[in-house]
Amino acid sequence: MAHEVTVMGREGCHLCEVAEADVARICGELGVAWKTEDVDTDPEWRAEYGDRVPVILVDGAEHGYWRVEEDRLRRALA
C-alpha cells in the first residue's frame, strides 16, 4: 500500500520547518510521497490544527503533532 504524509503547518513556524526536514528525510529514505499544507489558507484547517502545528497526517489521519516521532512514523509507513 502506498502511503502519503502531510505536514500541516504555517509560514514562519520553526517547529514546522524542523518537522518538514524530518519528514523529507524519512519519506525520502522510504520512498513515501509527502507534502505540506498551510493551515492559514483554510479556516477549517486553522480551527482544527492551528494551535498544534505542525501536525503530521498519514494517509489523511492525524498521526502526531509538534514533533516527528521518527520510530513511530517509520512503523506507520512500513
Give a structural overview.
The chain is α+β, with helices and mostly antiparallel strands. It contains 3 helices and 4 strands; from the N terminus they run E-H-E-H-E-E-H. A 4-stranded mixed β-sheet has the order 2-1-3-4, covered by helices on one side. Strand 3 (55-58) and strand 4 form a beta hairpin. It is globular, with a radius of gyration of 12 Å. It starts with a strand and ends with a helix.
Q: Which characteristics define this entry?
A:
Glutaredoxin-like; Thioredoxin-like_sf; alpha+beta; 4-stranded mixed sheet; Glutaredoxin family protein; 78 residues
Give the strand content: 25-35%
**Total DSSP helices:** 3
What's the total count of β strands?
4
Order of helices and strands: EHEHEEH
Fraction in helix: 40-55%
Distance between the termini: 9 Å
Mean pLDDT comes to 96
Tell me about the largest β-sheet: 4 strands, mixed
Q: Helices, strands, pairings?
A:
Elements: E1 4-9, H1 14-30, E2 33-38, H2 43-49, E3 55-58, E4 61-65, H3 70-77
In short:
With 78 residues, the chain is an alpha+beta fold. The protein has helices spanning 14-30, 43-49, 70-77, and strands at residues 4-9, 33-38, 55-58, 61-65. It is built from three helices and four strands, in the order βαβαββα.
